[in-house]
Amino acid sequence: MKRFTNLLKKEIKELVTKQLVISLAFTVILFNFIGQVSKKEVQKATGIQTISALDQDGSPASQALIKGLESARFKILDQSGKTKDEAIETAKAGESKLLLVIPEGFGESLTELKPSEIETYSFMRSFSLIGARGQIVVQSVISALNEALSNNFLSEKLPEHDPASLKRPIKSKDFVVVQDKMAEGSANMVAGMISQQSLLIPVVLMMIVIYSSQMVISAVAMEKQNKTLETLLTVPIRRTSIITAKMLAAGLVGLISAGVYMFAFRGFIGGIGEEAAQAGAQAGAPAIMQKLGLTFSASGYAILGLSIFLAILVALALAMILGVLAEDFRSAQTMIMPLMFMVMIPYFISLFADMNTIALPLKIFILAIPFTHPFLVSQNLYLGNYGMIVAGLAYMLVVFVALVIFAARIFSTDKILTMKLRFGKKKTAAA
Amino acid sequence: MENVLTVRGLKKSYGTQMALAGIDFDVRAGEVFALIGPNGAGKTTTLRIIATLLTSSGGDITFLGRDLRKEPDFVREKISYLPEEAGAYKDMKGLDYLEFMANFYARTPEEEKDFVDRAVAITELGDRLKTKVGTYSKGMTRKLLLARALMTKPVLAILDEPTSGLDVLNALEVREIVRRYVKEGTSVLLSSHNMLEIEFLSDRVALINKGLILDAGTPSELKGKHQASNLEEVFRSSLR
Q: What's the average model confidence in pLDDT over A97-109?
């Protein structure tokens, strides 16, 4: 144990370099900075905005429209008395994001039940999505006014009918059924909520797998490049302990790094995402998810954690073997690619395809990739497919054990010194 | 004198390529035994097999009466190996490297301190041991590695081309270190293609070429047998 601890300490010290600490600190600071800046921009965009209005009509209807905008937190700069061109120039020179032109005859057209037209001129001073938000709000105000005006007309002309029923004679009442549970709501919303809930799984998995694997591959490749491996293999410590120490160190540092990155990522998302998340969330959504049983229990989280943990172990064992194949640190950098693909394939497939309906050969191929299973755990938990979950966990465990045995065999035989892979070309070197 | 190591009919092949075609030799307690031969003769392969890095394709190796193939862990406790192109961890300080390596062999903190003190004395690097290995010259690194190999007073030190790539002065220092420290009970198995170095260091030598031992004995025995004035001439004569 003393020897193992000695080696583990050395492995951790090698991984926790100044560069790693600086890079982590820099990422946290940078992501928080971007998050804060974005937050301010979002606040500006969602706060009181200045628009210019040129009312060429001056009718009660046009004044009602401007009043409506004022009540929707717009600061209106009145351009009355100017020509359209003058108003455009003035608005462009000022801070207005938008110029609203209400042409003459607007009110009259409305009373004659003819379509009325207003013009909007958006001044794009930047091409960010937040910058274009002003026009979206104006459009929603106009649509609200359209709704109110058409309701007024219908109430006047057909007082005995409900305007809403006249405009939408067919209404749908949506229900979602999951297993034996049913709740009122749309399938779209439920799918959206589930994808939001499980969004972090692939991100966390990708980050840890990439960081830890890169560390293991580099650790072995560096031993080869620095010519320290031969000495290490002749000291009195079991080969399995060498493998375990390298994997454990990389796993620990990888987990901590991923944790720090996730913290930084939260700071970033917290800045720009809160507003959007609030806007996107639909009232009553959590209650529906609860009713449908689509929430994780403590045991659900434990199963998900176990699945991610096993996937990390598989990645580390695979990285160890790839590290042996790498000739030096430089070739180790390219060795991470097969692992990246193995994580990305199930991620994209789970995003765009339904595992239950894809062709059988493709399904077998995807299920054979151990990293697929953590992606499937959440939906299998929701759908009660415990058999699939257990099979996935067992499969990952079997793959991990097989890889560790294989890695230990490589480390115990000549192959540790003779195996080399250069861009797919296998070459055995003689001593 | 008792044998520390007995090698009989040792064979090794890499695929179809035969590196060792069945060699026999012994290393006695307290002696320096050298394998000499040109590049590709099979010296490094032999040393790597005895250092438990490679597995043999045939033959028997007995170390302190035990089968090396069956008990590699026992062997690793008692030997130390200095590969030809060995390196140390560049981001470690010299002293930390010695402590790290001593920790694998020492049973108590006192023993670990003894090992490190001995290594510090061997290196003669003084305060430079407090700096990172990455800043060392080739000669300094070699001395550090040699100190690492000798600090535990191993039963058998396996030194592959101990002065390879060193300038004259550094090579001389390394040879002196080997001579000075192996007389404390450690047996040495070394390889070199530098015949003059071997003559200076070794008690007995074996001439190896193309995976076969051509002749073996003390330098003076071999010189007498081949009527040669040095080992280079012995080697040329044995090739005929």
A: 85
- State the DSSP H helix or E strand holding residue A140, giving kind and residue range, or none if neither: helix A133-157
Cα B88 to its chain centre, rounded Å, is: 17
Residue among A10, A238, A413 whose CB faces B55 most closely: A413
Domains of chain A plus CATH, in order, are: 2-38+182-428 (no CATH), 48-171 (3.40.1710.10)
- Closest chain B C-alpha to A237 CA, distance in angstroms: 7
Q: How far does the CA of residue A225 sit from the closest CA of chain B (Å)? A: 9
Q: Which residues of B touch A409 (CB under 8 A)?
A: none
**What pLDDT sits at residue A200?**
65
Asked if A231 reaches chain B (Cβ–Cβ under 8 Å), the answer is yes
- Specify whether the CB–CB gap between A118 and A102 falls below 8 A: yes
**Cα–Cα distance between A358 and A123 in angstroms, integer?**
47
The reply to whether B83 touches chain A by the CB within 8 Å rule is yes
Q: What is the spatial distance between Cα A45 and Cα A38, in angstroms, rounded to a whole number?
A: 10
Mention every residue, 6+ apart, whose C-beta is less than 8 A from residue A112: none
Q: Does B53 touch chain A (CB under 8 A)?
A: yes
Q: What is the pLDDT of residues A42-83, one digit of tens each?
A: 676 667 778 888 988 888 888 877 887 777 777 888 888 888
CB-based contact A6 B76, cutoff 8 Å: no
- Distance, CA of B178 to CA of B33 (rounded, Å): 12
**Pairwise CA distance, residues B206 & B213, whole Å:** 6
Fold assignment, B3-239: Rossmann fold (3.40.50)
Q: Do the beta carbons of residue A84 and residue A102 sit within 8 Å?
A: no
Q: How far apart are CA B141 and CA A407, in angstroms?
A: 31
Question: To 5 degrees, how large is the angle CA A140–CA A143–CA A147?
Answer: 140
User: Who's near A335: CB < 8 A, 6+ residues apart?
Assistant: A217, A221, A319, A322, A323, A325, A326, A421
B125 interfaces chain A, CB cutoff of 8 Å: no
Instruction: Choose among B48, B89, B104: nearest Cβ to A236.
Output: B104
Structure tokens at B48: 């790597």
Give the pTM. 0.72
Mean pLDDT of the A36-41 span = 76
- The pLDDT of residue A268: 67
In B, which residues are within 8 Å of A414 by CB distance?
Answer: 53-55
Q: Answer whether residue A24 shows pLDDT above 90.
A: no
Domain residue limits, chain B: 3-239
Half-sphere exposure of A171 (CA within 13 A, CB side): 6
Distance CA A351, CA A426 (A): 35
Average pLDDT for consecutive 10-residue bins of chain B (240 residues)? Answer: 87 87 90 88 91 90 91 90 88 92 91 92 87 90 89 91 83 83 83 83 90 89 87 81
ipTM of the complex model: 0.88
